[in-house]
Specification:
Protein name: Prepilin-type N-terminal cleavage/methylation domain-containing protein
Low-confidence stretches: 110-114
Structural class: alpha+beta
Shape: elongated
Organism: Thiorhodovibrio frisius
Radius of gyration: 43 Å
Helix content: 10-25%
Keywords: Membrane, Transmembrane, Transmembrane helix
InterPro entries: N_methyl_site, Pilin-like, PilW
Number of helices: 3
Order of helices and strands: HHHEEEEEEEEEEEEE
Number of strands: 13
Largest sheet: 5 strands, antiparallel
Amino acid sequence: MSTQRLPNRRTQPARQTSLSPIGSMLESCSLCRIPNRRVILRQRGVTLVELMVALTIGLFLSAGVIALYLGMTSTYRVTESQGDVSENGRFALEMLARDIRQAGYDPQSPADQPWVEDYIFGWDDTNPTMTDDTGTTTWTANDWESGTDAIRLTHAAPEVGCNPATDLCTEEDPIDYIYYIGTDSDGTNLGLRLTKIDPNESAPDTNGLIPNVVDMQIFYATGKRIDNFTRPVLDSGYRPANELAAEDWENVFAVKISLLVKSENTNAMEEPMTLNFDGTSWTAPDKALYRQFHGYATIRNRLP
C-alpha cells in the first residue's frame, strides 16, 4: 500500500496579502486595533427585556397611585357634600318648625280683641299670593319654583323696645311669614326663601334663607277639640293643602314637612341619583348629592 504524504502546513510559507494604503495606515495605528474579545463581550447598561419589565412595574405603580388619589378625592367630595347637605337641611327644618309652633300666638289674647282665624295657610303646587280685605293682590312670589309647596304662618308682632318688667306690651298687629322654594337673585340656584309681611312696613321683605333646598312638600293634620282640656282628635291623617276646605284651616294643629336638599358640589356623585321623595320617584338633573329631610311640628297654641 502506497501512502500519500500530506504536505506539512507548518512548512508552507505564509500567504502574503497586499494592503491598500489606508489598510496599511490602520494596521500601523495602535489606537485603531481591535480590543480584547473579552472586553467586547462584557455587558454594559440594561437589556431591552429588563427595560420593558421596569417600565411595566412603573406603570402598575403609577396606576395604583392614581387610583388611590382618585378614590381619596371622591371620598372627600362625598364627605364634604354630606356635611353641607346635613347642615342646610337641619337648619331649614328647625326654622320652619319654630315658626309653626308659634303660629297663632297672641301675647295679650283678650277676649274682646279680634284675631286672625287662619293663622296657618298653605299652597300646594301653587304660586303663593297675598290679598288684602278687598281681594286685591298685594304680593306674589315671582321667583317661586313650580311643583313645590308654600306655607304662611301668622303670629303677633313683637313689641320693639318693650321692657316687660315696667312696660305693657301693646303690639297686636299680626305678621305673616311665608316660606317657599324660589330662585336667588341670579335666577339660577334654588333655595328656601322667606317673605315677611308686616302691616307697619311699606313693602314685603323677601330674603333667601338657606341655599340648595330644591323641593318642599307640606302636609297638614286637622282636628277639633272637644273642650279646652283635651287634645284635638285627628280627622283623617296628614293631607296636602289642596285637600283642605276653607273651614279646615282653623283646625290645623300639626304639620309634616318634607325637604329635598342638594349639595353645593354638582359633581359629588358618579351618576345622577334616583330616589323616592314622598312616594314619587325622582331622578336628579345633575351629579350632586341629594338627601331628604322630614320633620313634624305641632301648633302649640292649638293644644290645651
